[in-house]
């Protein structure tokens, strides 16, 4: 039993114990995999302080075959997952993350995964006709989804056929039959590059995928870890000790030893299935609601515990299951990346949930020279940690709270001259999940960089903001704490 100390978390069950110690887990019994789990999860993560929901006694399934959602939808559980403590609020979590992604990337080389002969996930190994993905309570998350998605909180492992470098990506997986699931990988992702290279070299591509694990692995798989850094080593750097892996019996690819469920098999260029639609993180069904041909994984092994827990991170109209996590992580990673370019006086970055943590970025700077604001916006719009599907970068002065959409838009309305302060970049990195993507070619998009800073030439003469000073606010709160203490 975990005491809730972050360093003691080695798998999803220890994570659950620690989250229970915080009072942050709610048990839900008797839900139907068909829509009820998805709807209950959606209602939960739209509440003021969403809990983690653990579904058991799911209709049609034995007790113990569970589904977890909402794992990282508040600051305390996200901090717990990142091994930063268990008592942080939003602001404290953002402060604690300052510089951490860069530190973890630098330390990853010291924490390569360690091979072991067996682990909890190898207690049951199934092959051939024993494999049945429908034996797991994979939900139909949204009413207009094209089927059941067993992989949302997943990590899909591929490898470079030349170097052996292993990549983990969070790519959605739809059940297509007892031994088959489609994997939807965007063309620009590292996993897609590996698949193309394997097809060209060998005619097929090996894959393993976790379907339930410590949520930390999903964070690493779902954020832009640099291509030369292993997500498994990145996880090791965060948790302070290496991830244990078992080599897959068929492909040799990693099977995380402490996972709940792992599948292993092959992708073939000529084996595809209709996939979707699926309610995606943009808040729309992907592809405008259509179905598309997607690579199908032929599964040759399933590794699992006797009573496995599926980790679900269903997206949808934000806020959704992982939008908070993505906003926090992307904000921290983009801030670190901007500072690493040498850009001076960066005061803050926030990737807003309204844009799914990707499409709307606010960057705060203290202007030091002409063009500084435009430079910050253009860098942020294309830096690797922020380039995928970005649409708006708003640069504000350091007196504006980047996390407050109200303050950011106030700056846009009062410090932006639209005719000269909005730059539009064309043919940038878009996505098929964009509801505006026409679907008839490569998924380009355009993006706007909005300079919402005070004009550099007017810094000394720009009107003063009409608000009480911080000292004066503190003085009146101290004088009337019963009236103003909570504001």
Name of the CATH homologous superfamily of the domain at 323-458 = UbiD C-terminal domain-like
Alpha-carbon distance between the two ends: 39 Å
What is the total tally of β strands? Answer: 21
Strand content: 15-25%
Largest sheet: 9 strands, antiparallel
Per CATH, the architecture of the domain at 323-458 is: 3-Layer(aba) Sandwich
Low-confidence runs of at least 5 consecutive residues: 1-7
Domain 3-octaprenyl-4-hydroxybenzoate carboxy-lyase-like Rift-related: 116-318
GO molecular function: carboxy-lyase activity
Domain 3-octaprenyl-4-hydroxybenzoate carboxy-lyase-like C-terminal: 324-452
Organism: Pseudonocardia endophytica
Question: How does this model look, in words?
Answer:
This is UbiD family decarboxylase. This protein is of the alpha+beta class and 487 residues long. 27% of the residues lie in helices and 25% in strands. The strands form four sheets. Strands 5, 6, 7, 8, 9, 10, 11, 14 and 15 form a nine-stranded antiparallel beta sheet that branches. It has a five-stranded mixed beta sheet with strand order 17-18-19-21-20. Strands 1-2-3-16 form a four-stranded mixed beta sheet, with helices on both faces. Strand 12 and strand 13 (254-256) form a beta hairpin. Helix 7 packs across helix 8.
């Amino acid at each position: 039993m975990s005491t809730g100390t972050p360093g003691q978390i080695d798998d999803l069950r220890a994570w659950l114990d620690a989250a229970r110690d915080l009072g942050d887990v709610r048990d839900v019994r008797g839900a139907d995999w068909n829509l009820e789990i998805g709807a209950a999860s959606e209602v939960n993560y739209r509440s003021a302080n969403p809990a983690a929901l653990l579904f058991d006694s799911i209709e049609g399934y034995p007790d113990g075959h569970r589904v977890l959602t909402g794992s990282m939808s508040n600051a305390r559980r996200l901090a717990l997952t990142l091994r930063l403590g268990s008592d942080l609020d939003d602001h404290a979590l953002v402060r604690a993350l300052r510089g951490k992604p860069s530190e973890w990337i630098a330390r990853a080389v010291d924490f390569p995964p360690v091979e072991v002969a067996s682990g909890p996930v190898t207690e049951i190994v199934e092959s051939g006709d024993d494999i049945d993905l429908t034996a797991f309570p994979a939900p139909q998350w949204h009413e207009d989804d094209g089927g059941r998605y067993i992989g949302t909180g997943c990590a899909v492992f591929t490898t470079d056929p030349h170097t052996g470098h292993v990549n983990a990506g969070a790519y959605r997986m739809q059940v297509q039959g007892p031994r088959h699931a489609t994997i939807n990988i965007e063309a620009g992702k590292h996993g897609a590059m590996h698949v193309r290279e394997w097809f060209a070299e060998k005619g097929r591509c090996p894959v393993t995928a976790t379907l339930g694990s410590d949520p930390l692995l999903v964070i690493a798989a779902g954020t832009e870890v640099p291509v030369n850094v292993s997500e498994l080593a990145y996880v090791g750097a965060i948790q302070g000790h290496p991830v244990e892996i078992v080599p897959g019996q068929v492909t040799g690819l990693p099977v995380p030893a402490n996972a709940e469920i792992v599948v292993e098999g092959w992708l073939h260029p000529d084996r595809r299935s209709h996939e979707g639609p699926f309610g995606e993180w943009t808040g729309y069904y992907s592809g405008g609601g259509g179905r598309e041909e997607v690579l199908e994984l032929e599964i040759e092994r399933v590794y699992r515990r006797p009573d496995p827990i599926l980790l679900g991170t269903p997206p949808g109209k934000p806020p959704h299951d992982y939008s908070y996590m993505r906003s926090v992580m992307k904000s921290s990673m983009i801030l670190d990346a901007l500072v690493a370019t040498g850009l001076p006086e960066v005061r803050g970055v926030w990737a807003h949930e309204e844009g799914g943590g990707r499409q709307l970025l606010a960057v705060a700077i203290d202007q030091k020279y002409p063009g500084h604001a435009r430079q910050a916006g253009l860098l942020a719009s294309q830096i690797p940690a922020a380039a995928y599907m970005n649409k708006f970068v708003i640069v504000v002065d350091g007196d504006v709270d980047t996390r407050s959409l109200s303050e950011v838009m106030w700056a846009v309305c009062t410090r932006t001259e639209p005719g000269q302060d909005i730059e539009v970049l064309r043919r940038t990195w878009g996505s098929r999940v964009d509801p505006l993507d026409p679907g008839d070619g490569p998924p380009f998009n355009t993006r706007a960089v909005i300079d919402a800073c005070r004009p550099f030439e007017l810094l000394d003469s720009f009107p003063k903001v009409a608000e009480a000073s911080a000292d004066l606010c503190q003085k009146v709160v101290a004088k009337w704490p019963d009236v103003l203490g909570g504001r």
